[in-house]
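fyi for ur records
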Amino acid sequence: MVKPPKIVVIGAGSAIFGLGALARIIQCERLRGAHLAMVDIDREALDTMHSVAEKMNQAWDARMTITSTTERTEALPGADFVIVSIQVGPRETMWEMDWRIPLRHGVRQPYAENGGPGAFAHTARNLPVILGIARDMERLCPDAWYLNLTNPLIRLTWAVHHYTRIKVMGLCHQLLWGYAMAMAILADRYDVPVPPHFHVHTDADNMPNFIPVAEAGLKYLDIKAAGINHFSWVYEIRDRQTGEDLYPLLRERWLGGYRRNFEPLTREIFDIFGMMPTAGDSHMCEYLSYTHDPITRPWEKYDLKLQSWDGNRRRRAERRALAAAIARGERSVDELRDLSKFAILNEPVPEIISAITFNDNYYSQQLNIPNNGLIPNLPADSIVEVPGVLSGMGIQGLAFPPLPEGIAELCRRELVRSKIVVEAAVQGDRNLALQALLLDPMITDIDVARAILDDFLTEFADYLPQFNREADYLAQPKVS
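which gave:
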């Protein structure tokens, strides 16, 4: 009989990530009796979430062993799966600085998380911790799976793959945005209500409108998409029950007169390149060179909204208050059985863990894994996003036909740039960092790139130790 797994959750004290992840893992019947080891550097937040987890464990008869610690090396020995969702520095504050620092020098990024110069800083801050966890895993649980949920997902997942021997996959729920957009276009066919002026901007306050439409999309539609994270493309869309090909209808409706203000950049790219992008305007815009021009002001033309940092802060405070109330017994833990009530998205983490542990042959629609020919005209040793099957054999990604060359070139540029960003951040190499910024589609001047880099390295100095001392401990090559 297969022993239930040991699951380490690093970042478990987060009210944004932790509530949903813990609720889904502890509710999973297949994971009954597992060891759940919770790790976070915030002792107070960790204690609250540990209390909530124990209440779930008891109320839902999960029979798990639950432990918590602020030291990951105490939790890692014997781990089968290590789930990582962390951010270095105060999340919203850092993100806003990633946007405002380039703006001082005339570079207005449309989003500043996964692309643009802000994403360089975002990568460089998180990378030492992300790789440090993998290095500890090599010593303490070398056969465990590293499940990375930290952005920039392509870059950080590739760093673990390239610089360590650890098995890694990146997990993201962005395909839901593709389902929501498609369902909005096809809603009358399935009698699905869509709110007036519906959009899929990635905004905490928009989640109550977004989630029901996305869930209806999952119920009625089947999308097969591939590409790279936050920049994947619909190869096929069918009616989930009948198998009917819906791509012609979707294309006819969206490009033929559906609301012109509905994800207009996505519609434009769909029309020009011939395939529907899945990420929605908010994330897709990060990888394009035509979203920041100060003369044409594309953020106005396409209504490209920034992340709502204040909205995220409110959401974080609300989730912390909810967790604290459950821990004190003032609210029932059973409220967390329905995560949509709190606008929390379902992550397929327990299904993935169960499938690999118990050979469940689970089909996942969105995995970020090494390419190895899955998309033949993208670099072989890069992280691509494809569906796949998870079982006792591990992960088998589904192979796709080549992307159209125009789309493939957009993806290749990001993948090559991502590798240079990672190498610069691993080595602490300022010249390589400057090269990485000069390859960014939002940078058009050498002196501007230098000025942005200088400000990043000065203002984030406390979070960028690799640029202040030798970083050879990170850059060790993979040992076979």
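The first strand starts at residue 6 and ends at 10. thats all i got for now
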